[in-house]
Design goal:
single chain; binds nicotinamide-adenine-dinucleotide; alpha/beta; binds uridine-5'-diphosphate; 17% strand; 9 helices; UDP-galactose 4-epimerase, domain 1; Rossmann fold; globular; 324 residues; 2 domains
Length: 324
Amino acid sequence: MSTIKRILVTGGAGFIGSHLCERLVERGHDVICLDNFFTSQKSNIAHLLELPNFELIRHDATLPIFLEVDEIYNLACPAAPGHYQFNPIKTMKTSVMGAINVLGMAKRCRAKALQASTSEVYGDPEVHPQPESYRGVVNPIGPRACYDEGKRAAEALFMDYHRQNAINIRIVRIFNTYGPRMHPYDGRVISNFIRQALEGEPITIFGDGAQTRSFCYRDELVEGMIRMMEGPDDFVGPVNLGNPEEFTIRELAELVLELTGSRSELVQRPLPEDDPMQRRPDISLAERRLDWRPKVSLREGLLKTIEWFRSIDPSGYRPPTPNY
Ligand code: NAD
Ligand code: UDP
């Protein structure tokens, strides 16, 4: 039997999705990238377009589509707070209707489907670090709810299709991931700080900067996603994928200043509503079941990311929303 599979990646033109497509194409798979380009641009996948085993479909994940595939990675969803809060109803529709469409396709084709879930399902966590068994504290009526609750609903749908229709599923809970191809105007902390440092603009710290995040380099995250998809069928997850090294936002700002050699000043801005105060994955499950553990330090990953930001012209990037 051929080991070459036909694989659909929804959100495949995005920051993580484009790298995932690249990795799957390199392995010889027949890859279909589906995207509506809400938060990404064609330049992310332009280098793949000429390849015989890569195909691009401009399509909105909220609408059904009929394709014949063996595996589906479901990544379509705006991921940066400014992007997902721009049109919150659409964000929720993308998570929920997108999941239903993907799962319907998986049912029809007997395909395997992996959901790109998020550490946001834990909300502003009271348990630290967060294991998969923790059920989280999410504000269901706040400005982040469109994303957090949409992703929680998608997880519920994946599990129900699995139990009710025996669909072969996987759920990964991704913690903050960074690297080359982040949208320079996505408003996320790493892209903001690097862009601000390189342009000599003030570095905007929201709140007092004591809140923490744990940052995973993109390539290692994608490796974890592929291991999960290709892992044993009895391990459906959810599984945390992230780098357990934890930093305050102020420490991150200082590291970006050091690595860019920038003289930008640090300024404080109001903390956004419901901004989680701490976040660090417990990755013992991924270590045990997938033999996966990130090795790239934040310093090392930031250097590669800064190099990429230096190589692009940010004026060529269309800010998807005014929220950056
Ligand atoms: P991204 O914004 O770069 O990628 C999302 C992609 O989905 C974009 O190409 C966008 O155009 C596309 N998209 C959005 N709505 C769509 C729709 N209705 N139809 C079709 N395409 C649509 O963000 P990313 O960081 O690459 O995130 C990819 C996935 O990983 C998302 O599902 C996100 O929730 C998840 N995730 C990311 C992180 C992270 O730190 N980067 C953390 C947790 C979860
Ligand atoms: N943040 C910040 N300055 C910025 C952008 C973000 O201090 O210019 C903070 C934000 O308040 C949050 C953390 O950095 O505490 C991570 O924000 P991001 O939007 O990257 O991701 P998320 O909040 O979804 O983890």
